[in-house]
């Protein structure tokens, strides 16, 4: 009986011990599972030689590389700056990184104004050439003026506009400065010229009129000089003349001005226009057109300062310098163009 009791007691103790051990094991498992969530400790784990520690080392090294400024990040930063957008990278980077990368960002982000203007000018000039190739002269002029506005005084752009000027103006091609006019009974070229303040020569040339006859019902394109105005700007230092329409570049001409600063400075008006002019030299007899001694060329445009004006020349090699007796000289072909397009009263500004 005592042996049975002794065996029962031993079994009870054994089961109790096993139960306690199981309970302790469960508690330890729960404790171990809860530790990473409550107290993450990457550094102690990283010191161990287990696989988990090795992964932690790699993760830490990766984070340090991200935080450390490198060449790739410094290179990428300027590209983000040029878009004009703020990014989160600069805000999270260390202060030393900012000090190194910000100057590079500013240098790359700032596009010089002349570089940007050159891009606009080149693009607009390319568009102008494309429009001209398609036969749209006015659209070509507008694009070329846009190019010239981006890059003023550019000889290539001005050359394009120079070549375009007369084929556009002295033709029936449309321009904002022109109107369409249907000829009425009683109309004649002189009447239309006076009504619209435009020369007879321009009306005839633009509409391919031979002689002075116009027909009732015929549609003409006329430059409307009552709403739009030519103006001349002459530079004595550059020895050139720029024609503008409503302040916009039209054409540039090479000229000669007076030696010893004889050409007057100021703003004047064209008061008279003469084809095949006679030269009335001071103290001498008049020299008729065609006489080799007549230096006025084929046309004369007088200004409201007696004795001065614009005229042609038989000596084109003297242009581009101060070689005249005070007047402004041009090639005969060029003075003929001005004679054709400019009405009396056109402003002429002469500067040093």
Can you offer a commentary on this structure?
This protein is α/β, with parallel strands linked by helices and 352 residues long. Among the domains are: 56 residues; 54 residues, Roll (Membrane-bound Lytic Murein Transglycosylase D, Chain A); 122 residues, Beta Barrel (L,D-transpeptidase catalytic domain-like). Helix content is 47%, strand content 17%. The strands form 3 sheets. It has an 8-stranded mixed β-sheet. The protein has a two-stranded antiparallel sheet with strand order 1-2. It has a two-stranded parallel sheet with strand order 6-10. A hairpin with a 5-residue loop joins strand 8 and strand 9. Helix 7 packs antiparallel against helix 8. The relative contact order is 0.07. About 19% of the residues have low confidence.
Q: Tags for this entry?
A:
two-stranded antiparallel sheet, Membrane-bound Lytic Murein Transglycosylase D, Chain A, 352 residues, alpha/beta
Give a topology summary.
Layout: H1 2-38, H2 42-47, H3 51-67, H4 71-82, H5 89-92, H6 95-109, H7 113-133, H8 137-150, H9 155-169, E1 178-182, H10 189-196, H11 200-206, E2 219-223, E3 230-235, E4 240-245, E5 248-254, E6 257-258, E7 266-275, E8 299-303, E9 309-311, E10 322-324, E11 328-329, H12 332-341, E12 347-351
Parallel strand pairs: 3-12, 6-10, 9-11
Antiparallel strand pairs: 1-2, 3-4, 4-5, 7-8, 7-12, 8-9
Helix pairs in contact: 4-6, 7-8, 8-9
């Amino acid at each position: 009986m005592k042996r049975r009791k002794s065996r029962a007691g031993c079994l009870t103790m054994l089961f109790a011990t096993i139960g306690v051990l199981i309970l302790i094991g469960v508690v330890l498992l729960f404790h171990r599972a809860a530790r990473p969530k409550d107290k993450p400790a990457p550094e102690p784990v990283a010191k161990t030689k287990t696989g988990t520690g090795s992964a932690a080392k790699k993760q830490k090294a990766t984070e340090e590389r991200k935080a450390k400024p490198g060449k790739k990040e410094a290179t990428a930063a300027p590209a983000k700056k040029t878009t004009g957008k703020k990014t989160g990278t600069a805000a999270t980077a260390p202060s030393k990184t900012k000090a190194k990368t910000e100057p590079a960002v500013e240098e790359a982000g700032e596009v010089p104004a002349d570089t940007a203007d050159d891009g606009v000018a080149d693009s607009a000039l390319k568009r102008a050439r494309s429009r001209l190739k398609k036969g749209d002269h006015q659209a070509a002029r507008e694009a070329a003026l846009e190019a010239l506005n981006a890059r003023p005084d550019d000889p290539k752009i001005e050359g394009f506009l120079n070549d375009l000027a007369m084929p556009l103006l002295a033709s029936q091609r449309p321009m904002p400065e022109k109107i369409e006019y249907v000829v009425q009974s009683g109309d004649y070229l002189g009447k239309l010229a006076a009504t619209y303040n435009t020369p007879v020569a321009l009306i005839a040339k633009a509409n391919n009129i031979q002689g002075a006859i116009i027909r009732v019902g015929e549609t003409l394109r006329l430059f409307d000089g009552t709403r739009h105005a030519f103006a001349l700007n002459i530079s004595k230092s550059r020895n050139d003349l720029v024609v503008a329409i409503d302040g916009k570049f039209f054409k540039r001409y090479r000229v000669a001005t007076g030696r010893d600063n004889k050409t007057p400075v100021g703003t004047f008006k064209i008061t008279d226009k003469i084809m095949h002019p006679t030269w009335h030299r001071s103290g001498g007899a008049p020299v008729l057109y065609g006489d080799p001694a007549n230096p006025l060329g084929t046309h004369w445009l007088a200004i409201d300062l007696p004795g001065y004006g614009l005229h042609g020349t038989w000596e084109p090699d003297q242009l581009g310098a101060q070689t005249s007796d005070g007047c402004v000289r041009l090639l005969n072909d060029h003075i003929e163009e001005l004679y054709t397009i400019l009405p009396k009263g056109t402003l002429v500004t002469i500067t040093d």
